[in-house]
Specification:
mainly alpha; single chain; 357 residues
């Protein structure tokens, strides 16, 4: 017999799996694919669809990811002492963040940059740092492709330190969110940390309320209505990525993931939801390699001048490249995650503790 807890974990994994695929798709579309759209001779409508699809998913992608992360961290934050959780919840995240930041820098800047001579994204990123000093500075500012891991570590520490002052830290996170949305905070790394902290806190302190609101009950019409009115009001004020729209998107996706699991076998998506780390830390390397290779090859052979090729590119490049990069990430993880290679995906002390138990 399935317990309610187990049923909840199923939709959690589904939501995490969907979010990691949307993250990969976002990195596939906006850095390289979108810049190729002006060169297309056909397929403008599907190309604009993919760009718009990624843009309008902004209220869902990372807010939902951080909400689920806060939900999963809630017990450690609220009920367990620092001694039991610091290594697994803080040290491990910072270790993985700086380790994979270094690996991405060596692979993307060192290997891809040396071979391709160019980069997909024009954003300031630690993966394209010109010196060790710039690399360290950008890593500390969360301006790295693996910034999510850094954010989780910082958010966990802040939430646990101020768990008794719940309203005060929520107010601070609210101010940071608005500061990020109206572009007061400089740099996309600090801006991202400021914008998404509140969603981690929602998952930590108010996940039971939000899960209850996500159910299709008449009693939930009032909170949904209030959120909708506030979301529309903020949009009219010129804030499309507003807090209330993000909360509505999270509620809708919780409900959708729960319904999908009741109707279909979502084992593949749930498996991805339980294995987001390897896809997250590896996918950007493959996007730079494969995406830049595809772009350079197409430009060199003047393939965008062909309407047939442009149409195929416009329609197929985003989903195909997303699938390839996700599959390669899982495949490389499968090869590396054995023996000494396990240290690439977990803090060595935690690995020793696993073997000791």
């Amino acid at each position: 017999m399935n317990s309610p807890h187990k049923k909840e974990i199923v939709w959690v994994n589904s939501l995490k799996g969907a979010c990691i695929l949307l993250v990969v798709l976002y990195h596939v579309v906006l850095p390289g694919y979108a810049e190729m759209v002006p060169q297309l001779t056909a397929g403008f409508i599907p190309a604009k669809f993919w760009v718009a699809f990624n843009h309008y998913l902004s209220p869902l992608r990372m807010p939902a990811f951080f909400f689920v992360s806060g939900l999963l961290a809630a017990n450690a934050i609220l009920n367990r002492p620092w001694k039991q959780v610091f290594t697994s919840r803080v040290t491990n995240l910072f270790y993985l963040y700086f380790l994979w930041g270094l690996i991405q820098w060596l692979m993307i800047n060192g290997v891809s940059g040396g071979i391709m001579g160019d980069q997909l994204s024009s954003n300031l990123n630690a993966a394209w740092a010109s010196s060790p000093y710039e690399f360290i500075k950008l890593m500390l500012l969360a301006m790295s492709s693996s910034w999510y891991l850094y954010a989780l570590g910082l958010f966990f520490v802040a939430a646990k330190l101020f768990r008794e002052q719940k309203l005060a830290i929520m107010l601070m996170a609210l101010v940071l969110n608005y500061a990020a949305v109206i572009n007061v905070i400089p740099g996309w790394g600090p801006e991202s940390l400021s914008q998404y902290f509140i969603f981690f806190l929602f998952g930590t302190f108010f996940s039971s309320v939000m899960v209850r609101w996500s159910e299709w009950h008449r009693s939930n019409l009032l909170p949904w209505g209030v959120l909708a009115v506030l979301a529309v009001a903020h949009t009219l004020l010129g804030m499309p990525e507003n807090l209330f729209l993000c909360v509505l998107a999270i509620l809708l996706c919780i409900a959708a993931c729960r319904s999908l699991n009741n109707l279909f076998d979502m084992a593949w998506l749930n498996w991805m939801g339980k294995n987001t780390l390897q896809i997250y830390v590896l996918h950007r390397i493959f996007i730079e390699f494969f995406g830049m290779s595809a772009i350079l090859f197409s430009q060199k052979h003047d393939l965008f001048a062909s309407k047939a090729f442009s149409l195929i590119w416009a329609v197929g490049f985003p989903p195909v490249m997303t699938a390839i990069c996700a599959a390669c990430s899982v495949g490389v993880w499968t090869l590396l995650n054995r023996g000494v290679g396990k240290n690439l995906f977990i803090y060595p002390k935690l690995l020793r503790m696993k073997f000791d138990t």
